Automatic annotation (TrEMBL):
Function recorded in the entry: Provides the (R)-glutamate required for cell wall biosynthesis.
Pfam families: Asp_Glu_race
Organism: Candidatus Pullichristensenella stercorigallinarum
Catalytic activity, EC: 5.1.1.3
Protein name according to UniProt: Glutamate racemase
Top-rank EC class of the record's enzyme: isomerase
Length: 252
């Protein structure tokens, strides 16, 4: 059990930013990553479809013997997280928009959340917003998902997007940003270029803490040995696989 891999899933490239952080935090673990790039983006799909795609990937990873599952996708976690926790016999943790840390850090200023349409509409985010930060500004950003899928991580394209979307609010009124989509982990630099000094929360630190705790409870943490990361994708485009390797190596 301790030597079994940990499954990590996303609709595509976004979860690679989570995987990068997981590998650094848990260097003895073996990870098995699945990007459903052939079906990305998930954000514009109805929740039932996102749920079905996520269940299919989770079962495929279970068949490969994973000891835990990280839903490294806010959208998939919003649509299918609870279901997977109920149905799978292994620990399941999922990334969610980190409104808690963002709100605590914003010092009474506004919190701005970038996420997919599905994440912003589903009850997980709606509940967090109502409970923690009712005046959070929610901005759907499907364009950014496709930028990252294409490998565009910096420069004019994301910066113009952020500048346009933030135009209605003076920057000094913004106290924190939430990247509520794992694809956007790769765009911290572009956002900081537009809004220097404003802290960004992407939900990765809390999900790593949850995974560590769940594995410790199940006595399933790898204690020694060299970790690894195997990448799988539903896409048959060799360029997608090449881009995945580049993104995994990139420092998000
Ligand atoms: N990476 C995903 C997320 O965290 C979803 C992007 C998409 O497929 O629309 O929400």
């Amino acid at each position: 059990m301790r030597n079994a891999p940990i499954g990590v899933l996303d609709s595509g490239m976004g979860g690679l930013g989570v995987l990068h952080a997981l590998r650094r935090a848990m260097p003895h673990e073996r990870f098995l990553y699945f990007g459903d790039n052939a079906n990305a983006p998930y954000g514009p799909r109805p929740p039932e479809e996102i749920q079905a795609l996520t269940l299919r990937t989770a079962h495929m990873l279970m068949e490969r013997g994973v000891k835990a599952l990280v839903i490294a996708c806010n959208t998939a976690n919003s649509a299918a997280g609870e279901l997977l926790k109920e149905r799978l016999p292994i620990p399941v943790v999922g990334v969610e928009p980190d409104l808690e840390d963002a709100h605590a850090c914003a010092g009474g200023k506004r919190v701005v959340v970038f996420a997919t349409q599905a994440t912003l509409a589903l009850p997980l985010y709606q509940g967090l917003r109502k409970r923690l930060c009712p005046d959070a500004i929610s901005i759907p950003a499907p364009e950014l998902v496709m930028m990252v899928e294409r490998g565009v991580l910096s420069g004019a394209e994301p910066e113009v997007f952020f500048r346009e979307k933030l135009r209605p609010w003076p920057l000094e009124e913004i106290g924190a940003f939430v990247m509520g989509c794992t694809h956007f982990i790769f765009l911290h630099g572009a956002l900081s270029a537009v809004a220097p000094g404003v802290p960004i929360f992407d939900g990765v630190t809390p999900v790593i803490a949850s995974l560590r705790e769940a594995l410790a409870q199940a006595d399933a943490l790898a204690a020694s040995g060299e970790g690894s990361a195997e990448l799988l994708t539903s896409s048959d485009d060799p360029e997608v696989y090449a881009r995945m390797r580049v993104l995994l190596a990139a420092e998000p």
